[in-house]
Amino acid sequence: MEDNTARFEKLLVKNGLKRTAPRLQVLEILSGRDSATSQPYLEQVMGKDADRVTLYRVLQAFEEKGIIHKVLDQQGTANYAICSDGCSAHEHHDEHVHFNCDNCHKIYCLDTVKIPALKVPAGFKVNHLNLIATGLCASCADKVN
Amino acid sequence: MEDNTARFEKLLVKNGLKRTAPRLQVLEILSGRDSATSQPYLEQVMGKDADRVTLYRVLQAFEEKGIIHKVLDQQGTANYAICSDGCSAHEHHDEHVHFNCDNCHKIYCLDTVKIPALKVPAGFKVNHLNLIATGLCASCADKVN
DNA sequence: CATTTTAATGCAATTATGTTGCAAATATAA
DNA sequence: TTATATTTGCAACATAATTGCATTAAAATG
Ligand SMILES: [Mn+2]
Ligand SMILES: [Mn+2]
Ligand SMILES: [Zn+2]
Ligand SMILES: [Zn+2]
User: Fold this and answer.
1) B103 at the A interface (CB within 8 A)?
2) Residues facing A78 on adjacent strands
3) What are the distances in angstroms from CA A43 to CA A39, A64, A103, B101, B114?
4) Which residues of A74-85 are buried (b: 16+ CB within 10 A; e: fewer)?
5) Per residue in B119-130, is it b (16+ CB within 10 Å) or e — as a string?
6) How many CB atoms lie within 10 A of CB A137?
7) Which of A63, A101, B71, B123 reaches 20 to 30 Å from A35, CA-CA?
């Protein structure tokens, strides 16, 4: 693996965001994980490296620019994951299924699983679909056996 | 329409819950609405009729007994709706789609719209599916035209 | 009906999550 | 190097939710 930092710096510049320590740290943490990351976890890991408020603002800016997307877990807690493909400030393309493990509480982006189209009652205009599956992730299902 | 109160009292007894004023009031409010009801709204309507903590405990008890189900809206706020059919303390059967209007923020239980089955990656065990559609409800879509 | 038992409520305190305004700091453009 | 525009940190506030404990009230008992 080569230098992430250079890549992240480009990403920030491309989006008109200044290259600051808290922002690079958030990108570093998120990219090093295999599942979506909760705000509380980020806050804990970053400790006093950055103020709570700064973290919220970094996350908000990244979301607006299409760098990360937010997923609410079944408790309503905000979790964040780096957007996989062509998300931008103008629109997100993260209509994949999210899997919330009942055991380890991780949230996985199932990028390969698309949300099936839906018939809704007459008059309703669907804009976005948000599907969260709960159950046991592969790793936790293993351990149970 | 005949006397709701009698019906609610039976419901409470059936579930081993005492017939108390806050519980009856919550059932009264929820049943009189066409969409799911947020905790903040309930709190506001009930005012000083019941303590905040009591409201939380009433909602929790009802959810556990399968009397109501919780839906988190796109902001992560808890909303509650009376369960339509055979939900019980042992399991809920509310796998219908929920519709969250971007304009009026109401949450509709689309009881007739089932969530389509899903293929997930090997190893994952799906337990529940939770699909929230956002957009414009029939009433709001009308007004826009 | 009176009494006992058990469940539910109210209150106070605490924790978690998220927001806003503003002054100070700092990254970048000039 | 200086100017500027953005970003940060801090303090204060807002809202959602939980816990422990004493008090109250519902239902069961006799
Ligand atoms: Mn995702
Ligand atoms: Mn519902
Ligand atoms: Zn797991
Ligand atoms: Zn609407």
Assistant:
1) no
2) A72
3) 6, 20, 22, 31, 38
4) eeebbbbbbbee
5) ebeeebbeebbb
6) 23
7) B71
Tens of pLDDT, residue by residue over A94-121, are 789 999 998 888 999 998 898 888 999 9
Which residue stretches of chain B are H helix? 4-14, 21-31, 39-46, 52-65, 138-144
The answer to whether the beta carbons of residues B101 and B142 sit under 8 Å apart is: no
Tell whether pTM > 0.85. yes
Name which of A86, A135, A128, A127 is nearest A108 in CA terms. A135
Report the chain B residue with the minimal C-alpha distance to residue A108.
B124
Burial label for B97, CB within 10 Å (0-12, 13-18, 19+), is: buried
The whole-angstrom separation of Cα A74 and Cα B92 is 15
Q: What is the DSSP letter of B114?
A: E
- The residues whose Cβ lies within 5 A of ligand 2, an ion, are B 81, 109
On whether the CB atoms of residues B39 and B77 are closer than 8 A, the answer is yes
Nearest CA in chain A to B77: A76
Tell me the per-residue pLDDT of B103-126, one tens digit each, with 9 for 90 and over: 889 999 998 898 888 999 999 999
CATH at A134 = 1.10.10.10
Flag if A123 and B116 touch (Cβ within 8 Å).
no
Helix B21-31 vs helix B4-14: crossing angle, to nearest 10: 120
Rounded to whole angstroms, the Cα distance separating A53 from A29 reads 18
Strand D positions within 7 A of protein Cβ atoms: 6-12, 15-20, 25-27
Q: How many domains does chain B have?
A: 1
